[in-house]
Design a protein that fits this description.
The complex is a heterodimer of chains A (451) and B (308).
Chain A (H helix, E strand, L loop, with lengths): L1 H20 L5 H38 L24 E13 L21 E4 L2 E8 L4 E12 L2 E13 L9 E7 L22 H7 L6 E8 L5 E9 L15 E12 L3 E21 L4 E18 L9 E19 L6 E18 L4 E11 L20 E12 L2 E13 L2 E15 L7
Antiparallel strand pairs in A: 1-2, 1-3, 1-17, 3-4, 4-5, 5-6, 6-7, 7-8, 8-9, 9-10, 10-11, 11-12, 12-13, 13-14, 14-15, 15-16, 16-17
Chain B lengths: L2 H19 L8 E5 L2 H11 L3 E5 L14 H9 L2 E4 L9 H5 L13 E3 L32 H18 L4 H25 L7 E4 L5 H7 L2 E5 L10 H10 L7 E4 L6 H10 L3 E3 L13 H18 L1
Parallel strand pairs in B: 1-2, 1-3, 3-4, 5-6, 5-7, 7-8
Helix pairs in contact in B: 2-5, 5-6, 6-10
The chains are: A mainly beta (451), B alpha/beta (308).
């Protein structure tokens, strides 16, 4: 740029003075020189034209962003900013614990417990490390995949937690209605649809451990619809493969299904609540529900009724600084079928009874980074048929209960460290004092603040 | 017939019934779902009685940290326009609401209006590593505190309203013209009135005032937050104390939703006024609309400046 400018000025100057100097020369010389000069003129005129064009472009650019007098006025930016510029958005959740248990064993007699429902590992251990990929597929669909890398029996395994397709409003369904297909943490109670790393405690409460083996994420299809009422109300339901705990039917013919309804609203500016009722029903006829390391098999129908209530209060209005969360869920399971405890060779014993469980918890954020919480959970054991006396399903009329207290520190939206103490009495004469330290960090896509 | 199939049938019946019973309400009025009070206020200025507005947050809430609570879902479902700051300010909750909202308010449609897409965004970074705190590569989303931005966004909102509610085009246009007239006049007044604030040394809590600082040409000398989104720590505050040992700044400002302890501690130590700026509509008793918000913000800064 500078070079061309310099060359152009030299040319202009030399052209100007050149004419005077050359006046006295002979015609012939003049003709030659004239030709030369003409040549030079052409070359430099071309350069000057180029420069002018360039200058014009620069000026035009400057005019597009006008400089205002005095105070700064912003200019319109034509750039469209998209919230998720990465396609797909990728998120990683790393989660690790150090646990110390006072009791050598932790059993919940009376309830056939799945593997995930048992207490965690003692000593240092990494929990589920989750990987999530999600993106809007196009204007009509959204896809998400979450896989967890877990260590089971000494080997690292990849578990598919969620892999689903969800309809987007662009599909043209009635507003508020969506359909989800694939494998997902289905809407059932409060915790089920949330990934465990977002929980307020390091482990899931007793009813989730006993009734859902931590969470229900069968393969299936579900729909939900937010009704156009003035307050929040949503209904929905789904059909599933009945393969995941608490079911066990791999033939694909006997499906399980669910239905739910929930309502919620605000109380003033700083309080909100949600109340829900859910039902999950299905068969475990062929392979049966396997529990207690495959030693106990339930075959038959089981219905699970869940009620959840959540209440959130931000005392100062700003949940970032202070927040109180109260949450409870009540579970009731009715089963009609047979239990077979192969470990105690009971044979198939007819079972038609109900049991229930609940948990109540409160979490208080008293400064932006610190929270304390307490939780009480309890299971109400079913009666024991004579054929199951002294088996894994004999609760000896004892109702398991657990108390938990936690304190956690949240450095940013993406990292949290937690200390938790559990006092569990899950079996008559067995007290387990558990001490846990946990970290949860997330990397990548910004997570959602679900209610 | 077994019990579960009876329940399925019953359930199906209810679902089908609901689709038909719910009346197809015509758009007598445009529902505007604003994420923040400033946009609700602007929507009222332009839409008048032809719109129904709702703000998802209030002045005491940090709009970045709220949850997609039930009431927001039910409001979002009915929205004809979703009007927010954008630039990732609402990234934690708006996507959840949009999943349930109308097709016409989805990104790229007329009902989806993100203010930061229509103004010059400050503090855009090419690299946003989270060790830098909660920094968004899209830039600073708190765009409403430069009144020139309000004009640009008001014009865009009017365009959207004209598209969505074509029958009332002239109504919106005349309200915009009227608003812009009063607004530009107010800007001139504010700019004249605040010329002495130029270069005023300001300590902020979080980068919520960047646009105001940029507009009034104040000088941001420090931030109480260690890094954006990371709350003040004792060691960081002590560092600030050291920094201001020889020369105190002119003022320490924060929003109604920032915790006050850091501000107040530093204020006392370095003998500098700490003030709570309204930041948005109803952030204090003298900021009921956009005009009052700017008027009051400038008065507060001037008050602190002249106190020295």
């Amino acid at each position: 740029m500078h070079k061309t400018k310099l060359a152009a000025s030299v040319a202009i100057v030399s052209l100007f003075f050149g004419n005077f100097a050359l006046a006295a020369e002979s015609n012939k010389d003049i003709d030659t020189l004239r030709a030369e000069i003409q040549n030079m003129k052409q070359v430099y005129e071309k350069r000057i034209a180029n420069m002018e064009a360039q200058l014009g472009r620069v000026e035009k650019k400057r005019n597009q962003s006008p400089v205002s007098s005095g105070k700064k006025a912003p200019t319109t930016s034509s750039r469209r900013i998209l919230s998720n510029s990465f396609n797909p958005s990728v998120g990683l959740v790393l989660n690790g614990t150090y646990s110390n248990f006072s009791s050598g064993t932790s059993e919940i007699p009376g309830f056939g417990m799945g593997e995930e429902g048992e207490r965690g590992k003692e000593g240092p251990a990494i929990g589920e490390s989750e990987m999530n990929f999600s993106a809007s597929v196009d204007d009509k669909f959204y896809g998400s995949l979450t896989s967890a890398i877990v260590n089971e029996d000494g080997a690292d395994k990849i578990e598919l937690e969620e892999a689903y397709l969800q309809s987007l409003p662009g599909l043209g369904l009635p507003t508020g209605l969506d359909i989800k297909a694939g494998r997902a943490l289905w809407k059932l109670g409060y915790l089920n649809e949330h990934h465990a790393h977002t929980d307020d405690f390091a482990d899931r409460p007793l009813p989730y451990r006993a009734y859902l083996n931590k969470a229900y994420n069968d393969d299936g299809l579900a729909t939900s619809y937010v009704l156009p009422t003035n307050f929040y109300s949503e209904i929905g339901g789904g059909m599933y493969r009945a393969d995941d705990f608490p079911f066990g039917t791999a033939d694909g013919e006997n499906t399980s299904w669910s239905a739910f309804a929930r309502v919620g609203s605000d109380i003033g500016n700083n309080q909100s609540w949600r109340l829900g009722g859910y039902l999950l029903s299905g068969d475990s006829k062929t392979t049966g529900r396997k529990s207690n390391e495959d030693a106990v098999i339930f075959k038959g129908e089981s219905d699970l009724y869940v009620t959840d209530l959540r209440y959130v209060w931000a005392p100062t209005g700003n949940a970032r600084n202070k927040e109180v969360i109260f949450q409870m869920e009540y579970f009731k399971r009715s089963e009609d079928g047979t239990y077979d405890d192969t470990e105690n060779s009971t044979g198939e014993v007819a079972f038609d009874d109900t049991s229930s469980g609940l948990y109540v918890q409160g979490v208080y954020k008293f400064t932006p980074r610190w929270r304390v919480g307490a939780r009480y959970s309890k299971l109400f054991s079913p009666d024991v048929p004579t054929g199951l006396v002294d088996s894994n399903l004999d609760s000896k009329n004892f109702d398991p209960r657990a108390y938990a207290g936690m304190i956690d520190w949240t450095n940013s939206e993406f990292s949290r460290v937690r200390l938790q103490y559990n006092h569990e009495k899950l079996k008559d004469g067995q007290t387990d004092k558990q001490f846990m330290m946990q970290y949860v960090i997330s990397i990548g896509a910004h997570g959602a603040h679900a209610y | 017939m077994n019990k579960s199939s009876v329940i399925i049938r019953f359930y199906k019946l209810i679902l089908i019934g609901l689709f038909y019973i719910i009346p197809n309400l015509s758009h007598a009025i445009v529902n505007i779902f604003a994420c923040e009070p400033e946009w609700e206020s602007l929507a009222k200025e332009i839409g008048g009685e032809k719109v129904k507005t709702f703000s998802a947050t209030h002045a005491n809430q940090n709009p970045h940290y709220i949850r997609a609570r039930p009431s927001l879902i039910s409001k979002a479902v009915k929205a004809d326009i979703i009007f927010c700051s954008g630039a990732s300010l609402e990234v934690g909750w708006l996507p959840l609401l949009l999943q349930k909202a109308k097709g016409s308010v989805q990104s790229g449609n007329d009902g989806y209006l993100m203010a930061s897409e229509y103004v010059k965004v400050l503090e855009k970074t090419m690299v946003a590593d989270r060790s830098m705190g909660d920094v968004h590569p899209e830039g600073n989303p708190h765009v409403h505190l430069n009144p020139h931005n309000i004009s640009l966004i008001a014009k865009e909102l009017t365009k959207r309203l004209e598209l969505i509610d074509a029958t009332n085009q002239s109504f919106y246009r005349s309200r915009l013209d009227n608003f812009i007239l009063r607004w530009e006049e107010a800007i001139n007044r504010w700019e004249k009135n605040s010329s002495d604030l130029k270069g005023m040394q300001v300590v902020i809590h979080h980068k919520t005032f960047s646009y105001l600082i940029d507009w009034l040409e104040l000088t941001e000398v420090a931030s109480l937050e260690v890094k954006p989104g990371i709350p003040p720590t004792a060691s960081h505050l002590k560092g600030l104390l050291q920094q201001f040992k020889s020369k105190s700044p002119d003022v320490i400002i924060r929003t109604p939703f920032d915790p006050g302890d850091g501000s107040m501690w530093l204020s006392e130590k370095i003998n500098t006024p700490a003030i709570i700026m309204p930041y948005t509509i109803n952030g204090n008793d003298n900021s009921a609309d956009l005009f009052a918000l700017f008027e009051n913000s400038i008065n507060l800064l001037k008050g602190a400046f002249n106190d020295q």
